[in-house]
Amino acid sequence: MLLGIIINEKVNSSTSLELIRLTINKLNDDLDLINSTKFKLESIVKLINGTNPIDAVDAINDLISEKILVFISTLNGPLHRIILSYSNNFKIPVIHSDQTQNSFYVSNLYQLSIKPIYLKALADLIQHFNWGNVIYLYNSDDGLAKLQYLFNVLLEKKYEWKIEKIKRFNNDKDAHQFIQKLEFQNPEIRKNILLDCDADVAKKIIIKHIHDIYLGRRNFNYLFTNLIFDDFWFKSTKEFGAINITGLRIFDPQSKSSRDIFTNLGLIENDKLSNLAKQFTLEDAFIHDGLKAIYYSLNDLSEKINETINSTNSKCFGCILHSFLKKVKFVGLTGNVEFSYNLFRQNFEIGAVQMTTSSQMTLYASWTKKNKLVVIPSKLYRKENEKKFERKHVIITSILEEPYLMWRKGDKDKKFYGNERFEGYCKDLADLLMKSMNFTYTLRLVNDSKYGAEDSRSVLGWNGMIGELIRKEADLAIAPLTITSARERVIDFTKPFMQMGISIMIKRPKEKYSDVFSFLSPLSKDIWICVFFSYVAVSITIFLSGKISQIEWSKGNIGVYQDRKFLDDFTLVNCFWFSLGAVMRQNTEISPRSFSARIAGSVWWFFTLIIISSYTANLAAFLTVERMITPINSADDLSKQTDVEYGILKDSSTQEFFKRTKISVYKRMWEYMSSRPHVLVNSYEDGINKVRKSRGKFAFLIESTKNDYVNERKPCDTIKVGRNLDAKGYGIATPLNSPLTIELNLKILSFKELSELTKLENKWWFDRSECKSIEKRSTNNIENSLTLNNVAGCFYILMFGIILSLIVCWIEYYYGNKKNSILNLKKENKIKTQIPDLFLANKTIKLRCPIHNR
């Protein structure tokens, strides 16, 4: 069976010819295995100038004269329409990869488009990027037809957009000059460019753009209309990563289906693509899939025709073969190959790809007719370490340090062996890691009980756990091992599994009992004194106004035997009562009538309003929050005083921090500590004991994690104050270039995301706390209610007022009775002296006796 293949002559035409040869040989081998009829696929390949119609006509005539049965063509535009006319006339099926969208409307019964109609995916991308203004640059004859097709698709979607500029360019220089003009006109406006050209021209345009120092990059977005990313394998061209580039792709040489096909063709060498496979273009992929479509149609055809292929009339055979070609379905280099009733590809998938900053292509989204555009989350994974850890059992070194690693406590009769001898944070962390990695491990203590420091007397110059890792005596070190630059030079560290820093530990201040008159605390003593004298001054001012101003006077009867006089209500006592009522927000049933008294009263009301409001606001803060008063609250407080001494652990990372610091506060603290050797302790226990015995006169600078743990242990007499002085981390240590490091990093990060490390910290620090009754960690448990001590003074004042009221009441009663008895006695004596005189005068007298209510 003879095939006629017409392809454009190009630089790498030899690659296309080799692909055709390999594919036909492989398909013939398969046909020999499955067909009882013996026929072979043969091909005649014509390389022509893609712009010369005469060459195209001559090539087609030559092929027809050779009695070919199928055309495979990569011609475009007018040349493509020529071959369609021949196909229609001679009833020869043609499988083409025409790039002109005009062919959508050409009526031809014998064509099959191996290249899908993908512009709907392009329209969805424009809508997804929300491009309202677009600049369209093209150099093809069907450029305007593509643009019209995009308009129709987006019109159906009711998406509003407009073409800001349209330019047909002749070459890359012409396009670059147009882009320069756009930039100079509006340098700040974002420019969304639809670029319709082939891969070579697009490459030149992008490179010219990047190399032009007068052209911006941030405001430019390029979207290619053609499937040029399939031919865009220019990894060495670093310019592509410097600007936003998006395009479409249907051929992925690295996909599983493509690699399977390359394997069958013998184009995989040492699990890598051969140089020939790397040079394949999209046209080559279409040619391969066209040949494979013929292969599958012949399979179906051979089952229903008993005659040999060569004896069949070519015209009739063309009709039959075309009907079978329409029904093929397979997976080729360009994905799923399947044809619809209108002879075009269906059920295919298009990938939207972008260029990364390293000039690599990354899949941004996928498009199918059914699901439309689906954005794919980024899947940039770290390359697996080629060096594998051969053993499944590791040696872990550690050090005894509460609560990281401790001897396990149990019954006296029960003994523990192996890893079960230990407990603590690091033991649980090792269990988590080894279980998730499917490893077993042996946990052992470091021989010299040291973390690790440079030591000229040790083998390879380091002691402790660091030395064991350098000498490969252990595979891992899981301990509170601080990540430092010096250690990082000789071993590897994972990501920190715990963050910490230098913190301040002091003795917990003794609880201070509230003063019974603490409700007076919102205002200072000076303010209370001023308020009192202001109260007296205002009361006297109102009293004097009442005496001087005639408006306050009124006529009143002050007794039976006295004459009428002018009186006012604002006696001295009433003035004090009026001023006190204003403070207490109570009505005194008297109010000033004169302007002077009213002015004095108004300013007094305003004064009391502000004072009472301020007092109420401060009272809430003073009485509802019980604040612990500490003598030291920060490192700055320590550095500015000498009453409280402070120290650190000798020969530790904390000492190195203070030695090398450039911060003035910490420098001053180091000068203080270095001049007093007794504040440099030999162990954590010595420093903690010194804090507990110092009665608040010593502060210990210690890692925050150790500080938190000690504060939760009995006798619960220490506390952490202030923020951390620095930020450091504990990491798992491995020998240099260990294959375990990357996997351990991923596990640590995974445990952080799942809160496993937080659970471990809570388990060993706070859930086992021995000081829960003294200080609850959760802020929800803070007691905000007032105690009796806070307001006891109010009750005292109330009781004092009640007692004073009863005493005054009794005095008033006693004084009133005594005064009345004196008045009655005077009246009786006066009557007695008047009665004899009345009788002597022989006068009739009338006695008016007072009537007493009983």
Automatic annotation (TrEMBL):
Can you list the disulfide-bonded cysteine pairs?
A: 716-771
Any one GO CC term of the record:
postsynaptic membrane
Q: Mind listing the UniProt keywords for this protein, alphabetically?
A: Cell membrane, Disulfide bond, Glycoprotein, Ion channel, Ion transport, Ligand-gated ion channel, Membrane, Postsynaptic cell membrane, Receptor, Signal, Synapse, Transmembrane, Transmembrane helix, Transport
What residues does the Ionotropic glutamate receptor L-glutamate and glycine-binding domain cover? 403-471
Give GO terms for biological process. Answer: cell surface receptor signaling pathway
Subcellular localization(s) per the UniProt record: Postsynaptic cell membrane
* Similarity comment: family membership: Belongs to the glutamate-gated ion channel (TC 1.A.10.1) family.
Q: Name it.
A: Glutamate receptor 1
Recorded source organism is: Polyphagotarsonemus latus
